[in-house]
Specification:
79 residues, alpha+beta, two-stranded antiparallel sheet
Length: 79
Amino acid sequence: MRTRIGPGGRLVIPAPYRRLLGLRPGDEVIVRVEEGQLRILTPRQALAHARDLVRRYAGPQRSLARELISERREDSARE
């Protein structure tokens, strides 16, 4: 589907795509360039992507949040 860049660099997302993605006027989206392409993500999609990246490096069984809490408790006990 084609669309045009409007005044001020505004991009109109065609209605069928907005419906498909569940986007409504005023919704927040995240925009990034990836491999020369403009990607538009919902905050939920961006969070899922970030979790996938972390999981790739930390492993599926490792809980970084648990490790951080444990480190903070150890630091607090030392003070």
